[in-house]
Design brief:
It is a single chain. With about 525 residues, this protein is an all-alpha fold. It has 22 helices and no strands. Helix 7 packs antiparallel against helix 8. About 5% of the residues have low confidence.
């Protein structure tokens, strides 16, 4: 008999839908921002803007140090009144690290002429003029980074969704509107400073409202179902204070893991740049891109469920933890697996439509793109969330380092012998190898063999159905739609594929009536009201 969880599936589905919608919206906004900046600026100004934004992003990723993620783990251990103090401790720590990051950016300013010796002197002077403003933005923005996680950990998914979407929209308007109106970089950067001020003050005010000092008021503000309230009854919340030392021990491995993960994202491209010609690097840069809208699904669902994982672990209710873990994976699989297969069979048309222009072909990127995106098939959950729930942040760091090492060891020889196809294949094999080790680690925490960590029977059914419909659509595309324009082929194949998948899934019971109702509810966006 499969384990049962008392938490309302409808409630969790709605909460995950809220966060997923917000993540998709912010991803679209980020893509629109990147496209807008490219189109609105000259190559010189775009290089300047891109460089200062890169410096800001690097400084932020180093400075947050994993502290925002520690919120999920510790909020479930804290009494209601202690959460306010923990949130302030986290923000104060990040304000300090953000100040250090800002000072580092100021110091970096002095090395620009030597680092960018090939750049025109005028461009370097403009960079040196703007970097102090980016330092100020870092000081103000970095302390606000835990706000979304605090909202999620406080069971305020709608608030987290609106916070993410509103901050993304304000940032987009702050940067794009001045450029659209022709005011140039100067006003755009100052506008970003204004955005960071608004974000800093607004975040503090918001957290002051949702984390009141009065325990009774805080409890009555939580938007919990009756079943969830009964789940929260018990004595597992025993901590009145978490020391900064304990928080740092938990958070720092996560921060290092995040940095390693970002480096791992580019290591295969770096290998291609060393061993292959520049045209191969351009082709691989096109190929080595996961579809962003698919990637956010397991991350969004994981961010909603992690507090529940921690709660069940603290209560020693591993059967309910496993049930919730399985259910999250099954729901994500229903979305991620068919979409991955769809984008794999449409790879030639997608690359032609998105990247190719007259006289410029990226046909060599198709097979590497297909291999690279098969990695998404194993990303049906956020594995780091379950490791964090067990306090195993060292494991998260270990697997980031292990993946980086395996990627380097496999990609170098395969790139030399097989070109960019070998690079993509090496990256895929490295991820599969690391995935098996992660399953074994999680199985150790759950006291399960690694093959029972995931609901493989359900996963296999979804994969088999997706592959069957995908094979049929591939045949239709190759033999009946061969002369159709790429965009029309993408639209027609996607529509037929998704309709067939939904109908077949309903007939064989993969998609339940509850799932179907949740999808219609989500599509109507009623959860945002």
């Amino acid at each position: 008999m499969s384990p049962k969880s008392n938490i309302s599936p409808t409630s969790l589905t709605e909460k995950a839908g809220v966060v997923l919608f917000a993540r998709i919206t912010t991803t679209v906004i980020d893509l629109a921002l990147a496209i807008s900046v490219v189109r609105l600026l000259s190559k010189t100004d775009f290089a300047i803007m891109g460089y200062i934004l890169m410096i800001h992003e690097v400084a932020r990723n180093v400075a947050i140090l994993g502290f925002p993620d520690s919120v999920f783990y510790y909020f479930e251990r804290l009494t209601t009144t202690a959460r306010r103090g923990f949130a302030l401790q986290t923000i104060a720590t990040l304000l300090l690290s953000g100040t250090v990051a800002g000072l580092a950016i100021l110091g970096f300013n002095f090395f620009l002429p030597d680092l960018l010796s090939q750049w025109p002197e005028e461009s370097i002077r403009v960079l040196q003029h703007f970097l102090p403003l980016m330092a100020l933005i870092s000081v103000l923005e970095i302390p606000t980074w835990p706000t979304t996680n605090i909202l999620l950990a406080s069971n305020r998914q709608k608030g987290a969704a609106w916070y993410e979407m509103s901050t993304s929209i304000v940032a987009f308007c702050a940067l794009v509107l001045p450029l659209t109106l022709g005011y140039g970089l100067e006003l755009a950067i100052w506008s970003l400073v204004g955005y960071s001020v608004i974000r800093f003050i607004g975040s503090l005010v918001l957290l002051g409202i949702i984390l009141p000092k009065d325990a009774l008021l805080a409890d009555t503000q939580l938007n919990l179902t009756t079943t969830e309230k009964s789940e929260l009854q018990g004595d597992y919340r025993m901590e009145s204070r978490i020391s900064l030392t304990d928080q740092a021990k938990f958070a720092l491995p996560l921060g290092l893991s995040s940095l390693v993960g970002r480096f791992n994202k580019y290591i295969d491209k770096f290998i291609v740049s060393i061993f292959l010609v520049n045209t191969a690097y351009a082709e691989y840069s096109v190929a080595a891109n996961e579809v962003p809208l698919i990637r956010v699904i397991p991350l969004a669902v994981g961010s909603v469920l992690i507090s529940r994982y921690v709660q069940f672990n603290l209560q020693s209710k591993k059967d309910k933890l496993l049930a919730l873990w399985y259910r999250g994976i099954e729901k994500v699989s229903l979305l991620v697996i068919p979409m991955t297969i769809l984008f794999t069979i449409l790879a030639p048309e997608l690359i032609t439509f998105l990247f190719e222009t007259e006289g410029v072909s990226y046909a060599n990127a198709v097979l590497p793109f297909q291999l690279y995106n098969l990695i998404v098939l194993i990303r049906v959950t956020h594995y780091g969330s379950i490791l964090q729930a067990f306090g195993d942040t060292k494991g998260v760091l270990y697997f980031s380092l292990n993946l980086l090492t395996a990627n380097v060891l496999l990609s170098i020889p395969m790139t030399i012998y097989f070109g960019i196809v070998g690079t993509a294949l090496g990256t895929l094999i490295a991820n599969l190898y690391n995935w098996l080790l992660i399953l074994r680690r999680i199985g150790g925490h759950m006291e399960l063999p690694f093959w029972k960590v995931l609901p493989f029977p359900f996963y296999g059914k979804v994969l088999a159905l997706s592959l069957s419909i995908g094979a049929l659509m591939f045949t239709v595309k190759e033999y009946l739609l061969i002369n159709i324009a790429p965009l029309y082929s993408i639209l027609s194949i996607s529509l037929v594929y998704l309709v067939m998948y939904v109908v077949a899934s309903r007939l064989i019971g993969l998609i339940s009536q509850q799932d179907w109702n949740a999808l219609k509810h989500w599509a109507g966006l009623s959860f945002l009201r």
